[in-house]
Amino acid sequence: MKNLLKEEALNKRNSLAKEEILEKSKKIGNLLLSLSQFKKSKTIMFFVSFSSEIYTHDMIRQALKLKTVVVPKVVHHEIEPSVIIDFDNLIPSRKFGILEPIEIMNIAYKNIGLVLVPGIAFDKEGHRIGYSFGYYDKFLKKVPKAVKIGLCFDFQVVEKVPREEHDVPVDFIVTEERVIECRK
Questions:
Q1: Using H for helix, E for strand and C for coil, what is the string for the chain?
Q2: Distance from the Cα of residue 97 to its chain's centroid
Q3: Among 167, 83, 166, 77, which residue's Cα sits nearest to residue 117?
Q4: To the nearest 10°, the Cα dihedral for 139, 47, 177, 127?
Q5: Global confidence as pTM
Q6: pLDDT, tens digit, for every residue of 69-111?
Q7: Domain covering 2-181 assigned CATH 3.40.50.10420 in the classification
Q8: Which of 88, 119, 146, 148 could be bridged to 128 by S-S, CB 3.0 to 4.6 A?
């Protein structure tokens, strides 16, 4: 079931035109920036989008003017959060080609107030299907007090996502159409 959900959501997402991704991403960014949780957080960890994901590059550039921005760098199969000052200093990683910092500018995990989480599919209880590497679930356990927000297109919100013991659900999901407060 998990693989079928993943395949359906990825196929649908990959069929979106670039203009549609940008248009929907702009709406998601506007909703995100209007959230009190975003406004209150001094330090926000973004994922740097790639392929047909929600386009976060503009959101990151905008947030850099207002907040301390952190992005992931994968080191030894784990996410290391790194503060960034300038989006244009990110380079493609060797493994996935996702933009990340050249060097890590450390930040204490406790200082990260909000984490934006990618996913292939989410359910309304905040569970998600990721890319099957477990990077985010491991990382999210290290920031238990941070608000966790999944960003996705509305069609990626499904009835139920299969769960595993190690999964860490998000607190909110933001799509181009709505903000979902996940039931705990």
A1: CHHHHHHHHHHHHHCCCHHHHHHHHHHHHHHHHHCHHHHHCCEEECCCCCCCCCCCHHHHHHHHCCCEEEEEEEECCEEEEEEECCHHHCEECCCCCCEECCCCCCCCHHHCCEEEECCCEEECCCCEECCCCCHHHHHHCCCCCCEEEEECCHHHEECCCCCCCCCCCCCEEECCCCEEECCC
A2: 16
A3: 167
A4: -20
A5: 0.95
A6: 999 998 988 999 999 999 999 999 887 789 999 999 999 999 9
A7: yes
A8: 119
Summarised one tens digit per residue, pLDDT across range 149-175 is: 999 999 999 999 998 888 899 999 999
Cα 131 from Cα 141, distance rounded (Å): 17
111 HSE (CA, 13 A, CB side) = 12
Partnered with residue 179 across adjacent β-strands are 174
Q: And the tokens for 78?
A: 């784990």
Where along the chain do its domains lie? Answer: 2-181
Structure tokens given for 158: 């499904």
